[in-house]
């Protein structure tokens, strides 16, 4: 029986990018034959994973998973290299399994999600590696979000390139339908915040400076530059904050008005998450 040294294991690890234990097992199985050990790892997807790490994986899909009473929803972006693979049944099944695990376990962040054990006891990261070996493209989870609250609504835009979660409070009536309208608005119009008071000071300063520069380029007197910039900031709030946007299904009213009309006077949007493929 061949003697497997730590140097041998490390060399195989450096060559393939596979884990130390996987490399040791492959060398034992190959009776010390380095090339045979590489083949063994390739069959498990490890070699492909190492070769694919620097590849661009900008295609893929957004997946969501609601809990039973719609008080918590998880969302992930699962990436691949081509839109053809994004339609692959194995790819779709992997995305559904990972997002279901995310909703059930509710990890703190993306790194914690990848470390979670799936039904066979192996980690999400290991399953991503397996998928690379089976499908032949780089496969990775690049984004993860979780919202919890009184009512959390999810929406996936057709094509699964954009996904939205929105948390509501104080809503009455058909909360799912009303919440879906709000989520659809977020998907289509990509607001930067719920209301103007939620816009960061950094964004406000940037928009004021842009407004001033535009006014100067238009030859406006310096004495009114500040007022013009403030007016442009108001337009920015109207166009880019959710509650002040015109409702895309009826531009005669704002989202704030639509929210009160459909979900009650006490209805509030507490938070939202918007995920766009590759963005």
Give me some keywords for this one.
279 residues; alpha+beta; Helicase, Ruva Protein, domain 3; Tetrahydropterin Synthase, Chain A; 3-stranded antiparallel sheet; 12 helices; 8 strands; 48% helix; 20% strand
Task: Show the helix and strand layout.
Elements: H1 6-16, H2 20-29, H3 34-43, H4 46-52, E1 59-66, E2 72-80, H5 83-86, H6 89-105, H7 110-115, H8 124-135, E3 140-148, E4 151-156, E5 162-169, H9 175-189, H10 201-217, H11 225-240, E6 246-247, E7 250-254, H12 255-263, E8 268-276
Antiparallel strand pairs: 1-2, 2-3, 4-5, 5-8, 6-7
Helix pairs in contact: 1-2, 2-3, 4-8, 6-8, 9-12, 10-11
Task: Describe it.
Among the domains are: 6-52, Ubiquitin-associated (UBA) domain (Helicase, Ruva Protein, domain 3); 55-148, Tetrahydropterin Synthase, Chain A, CATH 3.30.479.20. It has helices at residues 6-16, 20-29, 34-43, 46-52, 83-86, 89-105, 110-115, 124-135, 175-189, 201-217, 225-240, 255-263; strands at residues 59-66, 72-80, 140-148, 151-156, 162-169, 246-247, 250-254, 268-276. Strand 4 (151-156) and strand 5 form a beta hairpin. It has 279 residues and is of the alpha+beta class.
């Amino acid at each position: 029986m061949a003697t497997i040294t730590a140097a041998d294991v490390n060399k195989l690890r450096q060559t393939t990018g596979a884990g130390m234990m996987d490399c040791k097992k492959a060398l034992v199985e190959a009776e010390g034959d380095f090339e045979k050990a590489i083949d063994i790892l390739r069959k498990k997807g490890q070699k492909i994973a190492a070769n694919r790490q620097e590849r661009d994986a900008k295609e893929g899909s957004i997946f969501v998973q609601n809990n039973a009473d719609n008080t918590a929803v998880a969302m992930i972006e699962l990436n691949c290299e081509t839109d053809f693979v994004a339609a692959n049944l194995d790819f779709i099944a992997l995305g559904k399994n990972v997002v279901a695990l995310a909703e059930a376990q509710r990890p703190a962040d993306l790194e914690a999600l990848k470390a979670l054990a799936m039904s066979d006891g192996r980690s999400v990261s290991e399953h991503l590696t397996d998928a690379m070996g089976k499908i032949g493209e780089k496969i990775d989870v690049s984004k993860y979000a979780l919202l919890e609250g009184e009512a959390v609504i999810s929406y996936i835009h057709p094509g699964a390139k954009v996904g939205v979660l929105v948390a509501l409070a104080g809503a009455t009536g058909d909360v799912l339908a009303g919440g879906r309208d709000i989520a659809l608005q977020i998907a289509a119009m990509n607001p930067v915040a719920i209301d103007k008071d939620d816009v960061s000071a950094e964004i406000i300063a940037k928009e004021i400076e842009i407004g001033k520069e535009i006014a100067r380029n238009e030859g406006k007197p310096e004495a009114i530059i500040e007022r013009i910039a403030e007016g442009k900031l108001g337009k920015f709030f109207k166009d880019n904050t959710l509650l002040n946007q015109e409702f895309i299904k009826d531009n005669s009213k704002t989202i704030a008005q639509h929210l009160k009309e459909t979900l009650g006077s006490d209805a509030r949007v507490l938070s939202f998450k918007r995920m766009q493929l590759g963005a």
